[in-house]
Design goal:
With about 200 residues, the chain is mainly alpha-helical. It has 8 helices and no strands. The longest helix has about 40 residues. The protein starts with 10 loop residues before the first helix and ends with a helix.
């Protein structure tokens, strides 16, 4: 009888001996479950992101309205001072006084609009809740009386058809009201508070 040679190793043992093998899943083995709940609970969620998501659009519109209002105020000031500068004769007092009133209103409007722009910037960055509220109120203080005044003038000059222009002017005050409604939201107030704590530390 011839001596028997060494028995061949099973195929499974040869595969296990290779450390760089690719393990093929058969589908019968249960997959380990991954629980991330405990890991997520260790870190508090930031409220700045949701707050900025709510404030970015209204703050941009408030800033646009403030810049537009500043441009209107500059135009009003130029309109008031132009005849006084380029007048051939010495202007008399009854002529100058209405022009000075227009210039004073333009300066006051420009100041209010500057505060509006400041409030829009603070609202966009969540850096000052008080200035954001003040800037939103400025939009109401400027355009609600302006809309009423335009409505009266248009009603006298153009009749009921011109009230559409007055409604458009008063509609600009909706931007300030929109910002106030957004600022009163709970998530927005929490975002301002967290941002203030970050700036403090």
């Amino acid at each position: 009888a011839t001596p028997e040679g060494p028995k061949p190793k099973p195929l499974l043992e040869e595969e296990n001996s290779d450390p760089y093998r690719v393990i093929k899943e058969t589908g019968d083995e249960p997959k380990p479950e991954i629980h991330l709940g405990s890991l997520r609970d260790k870190f508090a969620k930031s409220t700045i992101g949701p707050a900025m998501y709510r404030t970015v659009i209204p703050s941009n519109w408030l800033l646009r309205l403030g810049l537009f209002s500043c441009a209107v105020a500059v135009f009003m000031f130029i309109y008031g001072i132009w005849p006084c500068i380029f007048c051939e004769a010495n202007p008399i007092r009854p002529f100058i006084r209405p022009r000075v009133d227009i210039m004073l209103r333009a300066v006051l409007m420009f100041s209010f609009c500057g505060i509006m722009c400041l409030g829009a910037a603070k609202m966009h960055d969540l850096t000052s809740y008080a200035w954001a509220i003040i800037g939103s109120i400025m939009a109401l203080l400027i355009y609600v009386p302006a809309g009423i005044l335009v409505a009266l003038l248009v009603l006298i000059l153009l009749g009921p058809i011109g009230l559409l222009i007055a409604a458009l002017v008063m509609g600009l005050a909706f931007v300030g009201l929109w910002c106030l409604i957004v600022l009163m939201h709970r998530e927005v107030r929490a975002g301002f508070k967290e941002r203030a704590e970050e700036l403090t530390y």
